[in-house]
Design a protein that fits this description.
about 100 residues, Histidine-containing Protein, Chain: A, five-stranded antiparallel β-sheet, phosphotransferase system, cytoplasm
């Protein structure tokens, strides 16, 4: 499930967002969460990952792990900042490639 970047205004101002599905057989466990956090750290944008009502910092592996996202879960990537579009696209690519897991 992929949507085009959507610009949305939320509590923290305007952000770009895109929905992705966790396709890994074992969900977003330590290895893919680490790859996600490491990739997110390469951007100046503030990046959040949302599952249901829980929103975490994508640059923190521990935060990402607290989501306990399993196979088939739909997550939302939200980003704000100058390179937000690039950040969302890069993280979406990780999900599509199943983190090379």
């Amino acid at each position: 499930m992929t949507e085009t970047n959507q610009s949305t205004v939320g509590e923290q101002g305007e952000y770009l967002s895109r929905q992705v599905v966790v396709a890994n057989e074992h969900g977003l466990h330590a290895r893919p969460a680490g790859k996600l956090a490491q990739r997110a750290q390469g951007f100046a944008a503030q990046i959040r990952i949302v599952l249901d009502e829980q929103e975490v910092d994508a640059k923190s592996i521990l935060d990402v792990l607290t989501l306990a996202a399993g196979p088939g879960d739909v997550l939302e990537i939200r980003a704000t900042g100058a390179d937000a579009a690039q950040a969302v696209e890069a993280l979406e690519t990780l999900f599509h490639k199943r983190f090379n897991d």
